[in-house]
Amino acid sequence: MSEIWIQPTGGALGADVHGVDLRQPMSDATFGRIAEAWGEHLVLRFAGQKLDDPSLMKFSARFGELDRVPVPTAGFDRAFSELTEETVEWVAVISSVVKNGKPLGGLGNYELVWHTDMSYNPLPPRASLLYALEVPPDGGNTGFLNMDAAYEALPEDLKRAVEGKTCIHDSSRNSAGELRQGFQRTLDVRQTPGAVHPLVRLHPVTGRKSLFLGRRPGAYIHGLSIEESERLLNAIWAHATQEHFAWYQKWRIGDLVMWDNRCVMHRRDAFDESLRRLMHRTQIVGEPVLAG
Ligand code: OGA
Ligand code: MN
Asked: Where are the domains of the chain?
């Protein structure tokens, strides 16, 4: 039986899980320790793994039912992603690699702004698991924000202002701001398509409250004028995205990083377009969003 141990990053969130080979069958006891560490640290990194898609899917499924991959952006053809019939609906390819003029995966090499994955859906994923197959020597780091800490540290006036409020999460664009297939541009944020969620979210497992923000563009807080909504959104985004709530992952091949998509936002630095970066991602079906 393997000895696992948990090493916190020392930052605002995140921990390394040492001593597990995720290709091997895992006892309920080991899984229990991982689940507990996840509740405490919100982001877990398993370094030095050697995963193929079926083993990534199998480990992911310990955390719940696998969720389907997001709708791709216009012009992207999944047929070039080198996935199989068994994996194509469940594994998203995040890659800058272009093969025969076609992108192998989504999201290219540019910066991704702070976001929550697929929160424009009524049931946003509980978790995302991102596995590094190829990484650039430099750039393309992924930042994570502790939204529990961001909520707790809200100044009293902002805490009062967000209480009981709901917000639209824009479904028309991806985390790089690109329009998805089948969507039109919307200019009036009150008409933004997408799910409506409470701004303060209650975590069903840890019982903690967090700020639940999806993406800044297209967001609109119900019951406010556009100007008031913009002002409040700007204030809470400025608060929540402060560096002391963040921790950055510098990728190495074989890193699997999973985040709790209920209480963590993430972003990615840009990297040189001549460099290869190839990641495979799974996501876990979420539960109804509870208002905090
Ligand atoms: C994602 C994502 C960040 C990255 O896969 O949801 O935001 O570092 N990726 O590629
Ligand atoms: Mn993402």
From this structure: 5-263+276-282
CA of 254 to the centre of ligand 2 (A): 19
Q: Residues within 5 Å of ion ligand 2 by Cβ?
A: 117
CATH number of 5-263+276-282: 3.60.130.10
Residue the block writes with tokens 């805490």: 159
Ligand 2 centroid – CA 267 distance (Å) = 7
For residue 156, count other CB atoms closer than 10 A to its CB.
Answer: 7
pLDDT in tens, 201-251: 999 999 999 999 999 999 999 999 999 999 999 999 999 999 999 999 999
Question: Beta strand 98-99 with 102-103: parallel, antiparallel or unpaired?
Answer: antiparallel
Cα 38 to averaged position of ligand 1 atoms, centre (Å): 19
CB within 8 A of 94, min separation 6: which ones?
105, 106, 107, 130, 277, 278, 279, 280, 281
Atom of ligand 1 nearest to the CA of 281: 5
Q: What is the rounded end-to-end Cα distance, in angstroms, of the chain?
A: 40
**Residue 94 Cβ contacting ligand 1 at under 6 Å:** yes
Query: What is the pTM (predicted TM-score) of this model?
Result: 0.94
